[in-house]
Design brief:
By secondary structure, this protein is mainly beta. It has helices at residues 4-21, 194-201, 205-210, 254-258, 260-264; strands at 49-62, 70-82, 96-102, 106-115, 135-147, 150-161, 165-178, 181-192, 223-236, 241-252, 269-284. It has five helices and eleven strands. An eleven-stranded antiparallel β-sheet has the order 2-1-11-10-9-8-7-6-5-4-3. A hairpin with a 3-residue loop joins strand 3 (96-102) and strand 4. Pfam families: MipA.
Length: 287
Amino acid sequence: MPSRLSKFSAALAAVVIPAVFAGGVQAQSANYGERSDIMFNNTPVSSDQWIVTVKGTIGVSPAWPGSDRMTFFGYPSIGYRHVGERPRFTSPDDSASLALYDTSWLRAGVVAGYGAGRYSGSERRLWGIHDAGWSVQPGVFLDLWPTEFLRARIEARYAVGNVHGFVGSVGLDFVKSFDRLTLAVGPRLKWGSDRYNDNVFGVRFEDALRTAGFVTPYKAKGGVNSLGFVASASYTWSDELTTTVFGGYDRLMSDAGDSPIVQRVGSRNQYTAGVSAAYSFNMRALW
C-alpha cells in the first residue's frame, strides 16, 4: 500500500505539472476555425497586452490503467496569447505542451504528461500484485493541420518515477465551428514500449505466488495498447467564458488487453468524461 507521502506526491504532480507547464500553450500564432478579434470586451487594446486564460477541469477516468473502477480527477491550467491571435484548438486528452516551432499548419515542441498509478492497497482484488505507481512523462509533440478542419497529433513521452519506459499516442481530430460552438471528434491509438508495458501490465512470478495463482506469470511486450476515440463540445458564452464537455473511450488491445491483471481485476473497456470552464482576461505584457 502506498504511503501517504506518495499519494500526496502523485496528487500534487497531477495538479501542478499541467498548471505550470501549460503556461505557454497558447502563446503562439493563429489557429484554424476560430474568430480572430483584435478587440476584447469590445474596447480597443494596445499591442503590448495579452489575453490570459485560466481553466479548471474535472472528470472521471479509470483508477489505474486497465481498471474497471472509476475515480475523480481535477487540475487547473493557464495559457496566454497576444491580442489579435485566435484561441488555438486543444483536445482534452492533449498533454500539457509548449510549442517551440509554431505556424498556422505545423506546431512542434515539448510536452509533460502524467500516468496514474496502481497500488495493491487501493482495493482488495489487487492484494499481492506488485505496485505500478504514478509517473511523470516528459516528451515531444507534433501537431499537423493539413486542412482547416483536420488536426493530426503525435506525442512521444518517457515515463519516469515509479515506472519507466516509452509511451505515446497518435490521434486525428475533425474540428468544426458553428459560430460560438466548436465540435471535435477523432480516433486515438496509444502504445507503450516493452519496459513500460511489462511494468504496468506484466505479472511477476512472486505476484502469482502471493495471490495463490489468482493471476499467473505474464510478460507484456511493447506495442499498441489501445484503440479508441475522444469527442468534445465547447461553447463560448462571451469573450471571457468558455465551457467544454468531453468524453472518450479506449479498448485495450494486444498484450495490454490480455494481461491477467486486466482480465481478472479490471476491464478492457476504458471510459473518460469531464467538463472544463475557461475564463479569459486582458493583462499588460510582462516583457
